[in-house]
Amino acid sequence: DQQVKQNSPSLSVQEGRISILNCDYTNSMFDYFLWYKKYPAEGPTFLISISSIKDKNEDGRFTVFLNKSAKHLSLHIVPSQPGDSAVYFCAASAGSSNTGKLIFGQGTTLQVKP
Amino acid sequence: DSGVTQTPKHLITATGQRVTLRCSPRSGDLSVYWYQQSLDQGLQFLIQYYNGEERAKGNILERFSAQQFPDLHSELNLSSLELGDSALYFCASSVNSQETQYFGPGTRLLVL
After folding, report:
1. Which residues of A touch B101 (CB under 8 A)?
2. Does residue B25 have a pLDDT over 80?
3. Is A100's CB within 8 Å of B48's CB?
4. pLDDT single digits (tens) A76-88
5. Nearest alpha carbon to residue B50 among A102, A44, A101
6. For chain A, what is the mean pLDDT?
7. Does A106 contact B at CB distance below 8 Å?
8. Closest Cα partner for B34 from B80, B69, B68, B84?
9. Does B31 contact chain A (CB < 8 Å)?
10. Is residue A45 classed exposed, middle or buried when 0-12, 13-18 and 19+ CB atoms within 10 A define those classes?
């Protein structure tokens, strides 16, 4: 039972263009969503988050959009840079559970070509 | 550098053995989480401790156990190891359950 899904295993974009990474979830109890970036041989690094009371959150080149009715979120990176090449994980949690347990997607490998 | 430290970085052992993975959370963080990432898998939640007490359990095998000590560092004990336990084990910490989790660099376990 995969509650958080990233259906695209990989994505390749040109430097300077927009990268859009997608994530779907099934559990309507999820109310907090996060994106992490992971380089090989390192731990996941927190990028950006969004609460279910919002539909957009922006931080520099990174914007996360949340569509609750579709149970879908996306991460936009504009402009994409070669240093953004990494594996991106979306994760979700249910605040009502009073735990910080995160449910992760399988990850999307982003390659930004110079 | 997230401020979360994990030791050892790499561990090679044999089936049937027992190992202990150690995690030191960021200064001020009371909550510690353990996750497992197997080959081609996403991160799977194992267990959470908050200020020394178990707060949540995920798909953690009975052969695995964890604890959080008074100084807030945590240890994950894996026993009767099997080949399938080979994975990356990540520790994360946060101030409390509602705050962002910051991950350590992981321990890569190889069971031969």
Report:
1. 46, 100, 102
2. yes
3. yes
4. 999 999 999 999 9
5. A101
6. 94
7. yes
8. B68
9. yes
10. middle
Distance CA A110, CA B107 (A): 24
Q: How far apart are CA B3 and CA B108, in angstroms?
A: 19
* Shortest alpha-carbon distance between residue B91 and chain A (Å): 9
**Tell me: the pLDDT tens digits for B38-69?**
977 789 999 999 999 999 999 899 999 999 99
- Spatial neighbors of B77 by CB under 8 A, at least 6 apart, are B18, B19, B20, B21, B64, B65, B66
Instruction: Give the closest-approach CA distance of B1 to chain A in angstroms.
Output: 9
- Whether A46 sits inside 8 A of B100 (CB atoms) is yes
Look up residue B47 and give its two tokens.
């267990």
